[in-house]
Structure formats: C-alpha cells, structure tokens
Write a structure and sequence with these properties.
The protein is an alpha+beta fold. A hairpin with a 5-residue loop joins β7 (389-395) and β8 (401-407).
Length: 637
C-alpha cells in the first residue's frame, strides 16, 4: 500500500506540474487535427462560404461558384476547402483542365474535412460527357496516389500521426481499398474507438464478414479489463484531458480548478476494489460538473450486475410515490399512489444519500438542476445487486401500511420510451382537441411520424392541441424544428444563446456541426403542409430534456404555447465520446444552452400528481391542460 500511495502522490504532482490540463489550454493537436492551421474566425468564415457555394451549385451558377472558390483558395491556399470547391465548380461547369488543376493542388493541402474524399468520384460520375468522366476518374485516382505519398512523407517527418491515420481510412475507402481501410481502422481504434466503430457500422462493405471480424476484435479489446495501475491511469488521463479540452460546461460549473479536482479523485480511482468501484470514482469526478450531458457511461456488465423490482417511482414534493407497476406479480400488493416510506429500514432520502457514490445512484446524484437529479434517483430508489432482495415499507393513500420483501430480478430501466411505442401518436381527448404524444426525437423519422399522426386532423376544425413531451429525453433537434414549422406563419429565430466554447472543427465522425459562440441557428421557415393556428399547451416534466427542451424553447420564445407540469431537465449538448478501459465511455457535452442548462424551463402552470391521482389513474396534468387551452390562444390568431 505504501508504494501505491507514493505513486498516487507522484502522479498527482506530475499531473499538476506538467500543466496537462491547464485552464484555458488549447485543444491538443492530436485530439483536434490541424488546429494550428486555421483560426476560429477563419473556420466560421469557411463554413459560411461553403454554405454559399452549395447554394450557387444548386442554382447551377457554376461561374459564381468558381469565383467564390478562387476567392477562398487565394486567401487560404494551404487549406483544402477552396480547391475542393474549385474542382466541383469546374467539373460541373465543363472546365476539365481547371478541375484537374484543382485536384493537383488539393492533394497537397490541409484537409479540414477528410470526408471530401467520398465526394470526388460521385461528383465525377454525375457528369454527362463520357470523355470528361474518364479523364476526371484518372485525375481523381492520381490525386489519391499523390495524397497517400504526401501523408506517408508527413508520417516520416513526425507529423500528427493520429490525424494521418484517420485520413488514410477515408482515402482507402474512397479508393475502394477495403482491406487497407480495415487495417487502418484497427490502428485508429487505439485512440478513437467511437470513430472506428462508427465507420464500421455506417459503411457498406463488399466483404461484410471481414468488417464484422474487425468489429468483434475491437469490441473485445474495448471491453478488456485487467485492473492494472497503468490501465486505471490511462482512463483517468483520458477523462481529464477530454473534459478540459472540450467541455462546454466546465467554465460554467462549480468546479473552479479542474486539475486540483482531478488530483483529489486519483487515489479513489487507483485504489478501487473492482471495475465498478473504478467507474464510480470516474463518475464522481466528472459528474461534479453538474452537466447531465457530460457523463461517464458505465460498462454494460457493470449495469447488468444491478437489478430493480419492477416499480416505477417518482418524487412528489418530499415523498416518493409509486406511479407504475411493471411486474404483474406485484399487482394487488403494490398500487400506483402508494408512498414508499422506508427502504431497508431507512427513509428514502437517507437511503439515497448513503448510496449516492455507488452505481446506479452516482450516475445522477450530483447533476443539476436538483429536480432532474431527484427524478432520476427516484427511478432507481429500489435498485441494487441483481437477484438480491430489498425491504420496502409502503403507505397507501387511505393510510393503510405494509412491508414487502421485493426481489431485484428485473434489469434497470434505461430506455426513453416503452417498447413498441409509436414515434408519434395522436388521440382526441375532447371535441376538437387532440393530445399528440412525442416520446423522443430519435429512433426513426420522427417528423414523418408526426405528419402521419396529424394527417386526420383538420386544422380548421381543431380547437386546441396538447403536445405531451413529459418523458421525451431529446434526440435530433432537427425533427423538433420541422414539427414547429407547422405552428408558425412567419420565419422565426432558432437556438438563441447556444454556447460552444471549444474549437472543434475536425471532430471527424461524419457529423460536423456549425460552430456557435453565443449564437443562434438558422431561421425556421413556416411549413408547406398543414398549419395549426389553434391554442397549444405543452406538457413537460423533469424528464423533458435536450432536443425536447430546444423544441419547448421555440414555442416559448414565439409566445406560441403554455407550459404545464414541472421544470424541465436543464441539459443539452452534442457529444464527443471517449472509450475508457473495461468497456465504458465518457460523453463530453460540446455545447450548452445559456437559456436553460442547469436550470430547466419553468412551466407557466406548475402541477404535480397527488397520490389520489396516481391511485385513480387520473392524468391531472392533461386535465389541467384542457382547462387552460383557451388561455393558450396565440396573439393575432
């Protein structure tokens, strides 16, 4: 133990002295490739120019597109963007020689987006002239060969090897060399497993068996756990550097000195008795930020070792009430509305406090806002080691009491929606009034499901709509934007006060988002389809989160709906994922909302169900929404 204690102190001292995660330090080059090749302002400018270029190409204004490409290439000749634009404009405009010249320059440039490899040959195949197609096919092949030579030369010179490995994956795929791409993916997985797995799953492989074999090998390596000190240190370092480099929440969190905070958690991580305890230490370190979008994701086997009792539990004030009985064997013994007064002899709040550093409670105990954390903790109130029993004291709404021994023989419930639940459903709840339930903004084409669900609804005969978002954990905000377009008659602004403090243009996973610093997104235009000008009420709760909160913000900002229920979850952000030893992951939130992160959105009318409501199966929030619909009428409609 003494040797380990010395190692811990040395590691902590070296960590701080080396300034590995200095406050305000730039993102490491191996994490964000080419970070030194383009400034933040230049990157944002390039994004705007790329959007303008796309509009010109769609309008078949190839002369205008070529002029814009020249402007970009002359200003930043070392970057790939202007040369790629020039190639596309020249190829579509029938200027083959100019297109070939652009490819030659492209091969020697910095690739801000290595995915451009995949655009070159498809663009060539769209050309009508067979002679032009053949010449540009040969030119693209020569560009690939020249680029491969340049990358190998850069490796010899000691350039950013990680970025080169990633780019070579794209190059092999674009050139049709699947075997080469698979070899590179195995190398890349050592430092960016999420990227490697994403490419394996998204790509259409001619030899799917070979791709599956690589995926299985990578998965086995990812889940391996020896518990060695080196392995544990590696996980701590990965977590600490990624949070420092990328977390939007860090500068706004209660943690004022991240290096010192990390150092305080190192002993617990190194001394952990097993993998579960190790991850509990990592979670304690990260979740102190309070950001419910920056979290440690526990390995599947750790989660599978815990079980629950088949009851849905929610906090109401200071009490913990049963709101759902999932286990048929408990029917009649436990009923919705029953209050849990003790867990293994302790008041529920004390039971949670004593176990807040253990899985699964450590997942949520330190998160903000407190209402969100309490709701998530209540759901796991009776959790524990799978197969064990827990003694639960109950009090019914009529005052009757009982004590039961319940077995934890069900998996922890982590899914956002009930199995088989439709993406969107519509139900008439009163004459001319419809309840539209949207349980999540992922899992399929939610917008198409919305259009299908509202198809039978005649906007001209509709007195009001109630959108039920109470269990919606978010997903893809684009679905919410598209749905909201059916509730406006004029363009409206979007994503106000979105904060992204890190420069991350080359997080190469195929999903490059627009960088925003205290900014807002593009305007939402009214939909061409049915427009609902009727009163709208939104049902919200502590589980209404992320993209669902963005959706709620649209209605609130435009004065388009009343909110009924409880304050929302208070968290949003696109994620960057980092593999951790033993099969877990770190999710780092890359942006936050200054409008609602850590606070949630407060409803216009607050309401909680009573024990009697739960016992009777009465939806008090829906009933209140029906009463409030006339007051939700939009101005001028």
């Amino acid at each position: 133990m003494r040797r380990r204690g010395i190692s811990i102190l040395c590691l902590a001292a070296l960590w701080i002295a080396a300034g590995a995660i200095r406050a305000g330090a730039p993102l490491p080059a191996e994490t964000i490739p080419y970070a030194g090749s383009v400034s933040l302002a230049e990157y944002v400018r390039l994004l705007e120019e790329m959007q303008a270029f796309q509009r010109l190409v769609r309008a078949a204004d190839f002369d205008g597109a070529a002029a814009l490409a020249r402007t970009v290439a002359e200003r930043s000749p070392e970057l790939s963007v202007g040369h790629e634009m020039g190639f596309l404009a020249a190829a579509f405009g029938g200027r083959t020689d100019a297109a070939v010249a652009c490819l030659e320059r492209l091969a020697d440039s910095y690739f801000i987006y290595p995915e451009i490899y995949a655009t070159l040959l498809p663009a060539v195949e769209r050309l009508a002239d067979p002679d032009q197609r053949q010449r540009l096919r040969e030119a693209v092949a020569a560009c690939f060969q020249r680029r491969a030579l340049r990358l190998h030369q850069a490796q010899v010179r000691g350039a950013n090897n990680r970025q080169i490995q990633v780019e070579l994956v794209y190059l092999h795929l674009a050139a049709g060399d699947e075997a080469g791409a698979l070899r590179r993916l195995e190398d890349v997985a050592a430092f960016d497993g999420p990227f490697a797995r994403g490419v394996l799953r998204r790509s259409a492989w001619r030899d799917p068996a070979a791709a599956r074999a690589v995926e299985e090998r990578l998965d086995a390596k990812r889940r391996a756990w020896s518990g060695a000190v080196e392995e544990r240190v590696d996980g701590v370092v990965r977590v600490a550097t990624a949070v420092q480099a990328m977390s939007a929440a860090l500068p706004l969190s209660p943690v004022t000195h991240w290096p010192g905070h990390v150092a305080r958690w190192i002993p617990a991580a190194l001394a952990a008795a097993d993998k579960a305890a190790y991850y509990e230490a990592l979670a304690g370190m990260v979740h102190a930020l309070g950001d419910n979008h920056t979290r440690v994701l526990f390995p599947d086997d750790v989660a599978a070792a815990s079980g629950d009792c088949g009851l849905g539990i929610r906090p109401v004030g200071e009490r913990f009430l049963v709101d759902r009985v999932d286990d048929p064997a408990l029917a009649g013994r436990v009923r919705p509305g029953d209050e849990i007064t003790a867990v293994d002899g302790l008041p529920p709040a004390e039971h949670l406090a004593r176990n807040s550093a253990r899985f699964p409670w450590v997942e949520h105990a330190a998160l903000r806002p407190a209402g969100y954390a309490r709701r998530r903790l209540a759901a796991d109130l009776l959790a524990g080691p799978a197969g064990t029993t827990v003694r639960v004291a109950l009090r019914a709404p009529d005052g009757g009491t009982a004590t039961l021994e319940l077995r934890r023989d069900r998996p922890l419930r982590r899914g956002p929606a009930a199995p088989g639940e439709p993406l969107v459903s519509a139900q008439d709840v009163a004459p001319g009034v419809w309840r539209i339930r949207i349980p999540q903004f992922e899992g399929g084409d939610v917008y198409a499901a919305f259009r299908e669900a509202v198809a039978p609804i005649d906007p001209g005969r509709t007195r009001g709509l109630i959108l039920d978002l109470r269990d919606n954990p978010g997903g893809n905000s684009a679905y919410g934007d598209a749905i909201f377009a059916h509730f406006i008659d004029a363009p409206c602004r979007n994503y106000r006060f979105d904060y992204t403090p890190v420069f991350a243009p080359t997080k190469i996973n195929g999903y490059h988002g627009r960088l925003r610093l205290y900014a807002e997104g593009a305007s939402i235009e009214p939909a061409d389809g049915p427009r609902f000008r009727c009163p709208v009420v939104l049902l919200v709760s502590e589980l209404t989160a992320s993209a669902a909160e963005d959706f709620v913000c649209l209605f609130r900002n435009e004065g388009r709906a009343l909110l009924v229920g409880r304050p929302t979850a208070g968290g949003t952000g696109n994620g960057h994922y980092v593999d951790l030893p033993g099969g877990g992951m770190l999710r780092v939130g890359l942006n936050v909302s200054l409008a609602y992160s850590w606070r949630g959105l407060k409803p216009d009318v607050g309401l909680e169900p009573s024990p009697a409501d739960l016992a009777a199966g009465r939806d008090a929030e829906l009933a209140r929404a029906l009463e409030l619909l006339p007051a939700a009428a939009p101005d001028g409609m």
